[in-house]
Design goal:
By secondary structure, this protein is of the alpha+beta class. It is built from 22 helices and 18 strands. Helix 9 runs antiparallel to helix 10.
Length: 519
């Protein structure tokens, strides 16, 4: 037997079953049930109603009245005190901003990105059917032909559409938008704010503000925030394509900035100034380049990263422009079949050194041998090979001139060699598509980036800056990084003691090709 106190009358009673222990009799059991069904007192109702009419939220009322949230919801419903949809939305908006001031910006960014992806997917599915493709193409063509037949009407249409889009996106009239931009311009002119901080202050995205500054002829105010070289690349991209080009885009990578982005081709360009992207800058972060390349790969964005010293080199600048034009599909090389070309084995580096210096972004590197395709006695495609530190046969360099395309050239060379071959794709230049197309398998993703050292004018590959293990040197400068900063490497490289700073690349991917075994 167990002993308990009745929760209705307080009388002590004994019970046998474990399931009973609240009441001493059926009368008390009914009384307890009746009490539990009692909703709330009149004083509680009056207090809740008063607070609700004052505009308090349910959570605030619960704290002030000590009434359970579920009871408050019942009172609000019974007394028809429910808020209008607009007020509920405003309360939800305020609550979100209290928790996270950037919550709404993140949501807008996600909605914009999701809508763009859904629209792209719908277009892809729809236009894959030739019948619908022809219908829509002809309809769209007719509309634009009609609009463009009258230049004045066309210009009015474009301007009206731009105004409607701006007002829809910003939730304000065009006059208010212009006024907002003028306030940002004044703050930047008076040195009170940077473009970034002023954009955040007034609720505009940095890329939108930057675009409007250029559009309105305020580009001189931007020059201190976007380098001249980056603007030169941006202007070059715009000169060779009619597609939309965005400067300092933060939508494609969900907040992470891409210096230049062409959304229709999913093509992004990063410009890496030697100061701002090296350890000389306070903003330098290890692995930042690798993280950005991973984000691009996850979203299937074709990334091209350009370093400042490459753009400042006239020969490499021309090569970079051809690389950009090729990816924008504005450069269309002549396609040649390998069968119609002459394939030569090149055993001397001098035979292909100048070719790679001109057509490979990293220039020439020593190799054991190379194979090259010639057209009219001119080298147009070349692959060089060497043994690496692991004793593997490796593709040292692979390039073609940008005037010709030779599909299947690499595959034929691999079959001639007939041995397992490895190669590395640089994440700042490609995703390794050329290897996938030629039957390579990815065997390693290198998460740890490699790096150079820079004197802020040029880059030096890290293998030329190996740690000096002389006891006298290591006593003063124990690590490679400290030796670089104190000019130990510069004495050998430049003949002085200038400091060198670390600047990282974007990581690599290792690929393996193996010959097929015929049974």
């Amino acid at each position: 037997m167990k002993v308990a106190n009745c929760k209705n009358c307080g009388k002590e009673f004994e019970y046998k079953h474990s399931g009973r222990g609240n009441s001493c009799s059926k009368v008390c059991t009914y009384a307890i049930v009746a009490k539990s069904k009692q909703k709330y007192t009149q004083e509680q109702i009056d207090l809740v109603v008063t607070l609700k009419k004052e505009g308090k939220t349910n959570n605030e009322i619960s704290l002030l009245s000590s009434v359970k949230l579920s009871k408050i919801k019942e009172i609000v419903r019974d007394y028809n005190l429910l808020l209008s949809p607009e007020e509920r939305q405003r309360h939800a908006y305020d609550a979100k901003l209290t928790k996270d001031p950037l919550a709404m910006d993140k949501m807008r960014s996600k909605i914009t990105r999701d809508s763009y992806e859904r629209a792209s997917k719908t277009k892809t599915v729809t236009f894959s059917d030739p019948k619908y493709h022809d219908i829509f193409s002809q309809n769209a063509k007719n509309i634009w032909v009609e609009l463009r037949s009258n230049e004045d009407s066309y210009n009015v249409f474009i301007e009206d559409r731009a105004i409607a889009q701006r007002e829809a996106c910003l939730g304000m009239s065009l006059e208010d938008y212009d006024s907002l931009l003028l306030r940002i311009k004044k703050d930047v002119e008076d040195k009170k704010e940077t473009i970034t901080s002023a954009s955040d202050k007034y609720g505009l995205s940095f890329s939108t503000t930057l675009k409007q500054f250029h559009k309105r002829g305020w580009g001189d105010l931007v020059s201190s925030f976007v380098s001249k070289s980056q603007l030169d690349i941006y202007n070059y991209v715009k000169s060779v394509t009619l597609l939309k080009v965005f400067l300092n885009d933060r939508i494609a990578l969900s907040g992470t900035e891409l210096d230049i982005y062409v959304p229709e081709l999913k093509f992004g360009i990063e410009f890496n100034g030697l100061y701002w992207h090296s350890s000389a800058s306070d903003q330098f972060k290890k692995m930042s380049h690798t993280k950005k390349s991973k984000k691009c790969q996850a979203r299937n964005i074709n990334l091209l990263a350009i370093y400042e010293d490459e753009w400042n080199d006239p020969v490499k600048q021309e090569l970079i422009k051809k690389m950009i034009s090729y990816r924008l599909k504005s450069l269309k090389p002549k396609t040649l079949s390998p069968r119609k070309l002459e394939l030569r084995l090149l055993e001397e580096n001098s035979l292909f050194k100048d070719f790679f210096a001109k057509y490979h972004i990293d220039g020439h590197t020593r190799a054991s041998f190379a194979y090259g395709y010639y057209h009219n006695d001119t080298l147009i495609f070349c692959a060089s090979f060497r043994k690496n530190f692991n004793g593997e046969l490796e593709i040292a360099r692979l390039a073609s001139d940008f005037n010709h395309s030779v599909p299947g050239a690499l595959g034929k060379i691999l079959k001639i060699i007939g041995k397992p071959i490895v190669s590395y794709s640089n994440n700042r230049l490609s995703q390794g598509n050329v290897y996938l197309q030629n039957g390579f398998k990815e065997i390693t993703k290198t998460d740890q980036p490699s790096y150079w050292y820079t004197d802020l004018k040029s880059r030096v590959w890290r293998f030329k800056c190996k740690k000096n293990n002389d006891p006298e040197v290591t006593a003063l400068y124990p690590t490679e990084h400290i030796q670089a900063l104190n000019g130990v490497f510069s004495k050998k490289l430049f003949g002085d003691n200038r400091p060198l700073y670390r600047i990282e690349d974007y990581g690599h991917r290792k690929w393996l090709w193996e010959p097929k075994i015929s049974l």
